[in-house]
Amino acid sequence: MAMAAVVAIMAAVPQAGMCQKDNPRGIYKLTSVQTSKATVTDCMDQYKVCTDSITLNVYIDNARKMFRFSRNMVFNYTGDTPANPDDKSDLIFDSNKDRFSLKWWTREDPDRQKQFPYYVPNEWCTEKYKSGVFSDDGKTVFDALTKLQKSDKKNKIIGTWRNIGVAYSLDKAEIEALRKGYPNSTLYNKRFYVFTPTHWLLTLDTEETILGQYNTINYINDDSFTDNVSIVPTKALWISDDCACLSVKNLEKYIVLERVTDGVPVLDRIAFWYVPRDFDWHVRQADAGNHVIQFQLGGAYITGNGVAQDEKKGIDYIIKSAEGGYVPAQFALGECYYNGQYVEQNTQKAYSWFLKAAEAGFAPAQNGVAWMLYKGEGVAQDLTQALEWAQKAVAQGEANSFNTLAEMYYNGAGVAQDKAMAFDLYSKGAELNDAECIQMLATMYANGDGVKKDEKMAAYWQKKLEELQQK
Questions:
Q1: Distance, CA of 434 to CA of 18 (rounded, Å)
Q2: Do 323 and 434 fall within a single domain?
Q3: 235, 223 in Cβ contact below 8 A?
Q4: Domain limits for position 349
Q5: Which of 195, 336, 428, 431 is the most exposed place for a label (fewest CB within 10 A)?
Q6: What is the pLDDT of residues 349-408, one digit of tens each?
Q7: CATH, residue 89
Q8: Is 159:149 a contact under the CB 8 Å cutoff?
């Protein structure tokens, strides 16, 4: 089993932030772009969201019905000419409640030059923004992000909902545990569903930014709906008027939603998470019992990111986070015990922590449990359970779990031997850049094992492995 380095999944602690000064507040649409080649008014559907603390860039992809937040920055009014000619920092000018202009220094960017014929590297590019202007899709997105949708007695699903997790049953105790654990979960203030009378919108978080999807919606009744992408209806199973479990065909789990009733719009919550905070704020939050911050702070101390390196203090924070129920910390602590990294090696404790995170639906931990049950490490060997856990992780697309499941098929462990199936699984894992899958794929091609012998393909995958190892 290939374990990711523990620190790789720990978010860095943001550094000290600033407040914006002398700038407009609100949502502004890009209306023109000017370079030495041309002035373009038929611009991409792009917006700046200006708050007291930060400005966020929002790009809407009308064709794919998606949007993304990017390039968060602190804006300060500067005028249209830098005080120092060598200073290429962004310039904000002609700024009031109705509009502002932004100048930024372009760089060599072949992709951008290909996409935008008017783009010229190494010169000032001027963008103009105007408030109160939206495309049709922009209005749909920002109406959903800035307004809390009121519940409708005729259609209970209309409203703004936070995604508090996934459940594998409709057991009320399982749902209640998700509710209690939500403030310390990775989903906190990041994943939301918004249902309006005509559209649905979903926000998704990644390590770098927040993405979103939106589309028109067709309500069959207050329990189910479809959109113009999905043919199979999504059904809402009601725990209460303010808690619903979305059931999607072929998914063996429920998406658990809790209605937002505190009056804070989704956009405000997203902006909050982009605002940089100082290190002392993180220490106060961690010491007050915030398990997400404890995990982040632990990673900072272990790596020496923004603070003097202190592995002992780092692992102590991670243990607190794991004991508090934060699932990524439970998995990370399991890795530490499995590898003897920052703690004394203990495979029994590793299995215990993996199992806690696996039962919460964390795919890498499900793979960890599968591997340890398969090998009998830290727990009695149980090939039937190993197979079940590996299949759960594969269903979520966890890269290394394809290696675990493939190896079981290859060896006929807990399942009838099937090298063709093993080859298929190794192939899928290799496409996800799992090193063990790539290595085995190269070997199978070289030996004609489970697949027709093909030295060219063997060489291709061996080269892929070498390139991956060099990164």
A1: 40
A2: yes
A3: yes
A4: 277-470
A5: 431
A6: 999 999 999 998 888 999 999 999 999 999 999 999 999 999 999 988 889 999 999 999
A7: 2.40.128
A8: yes
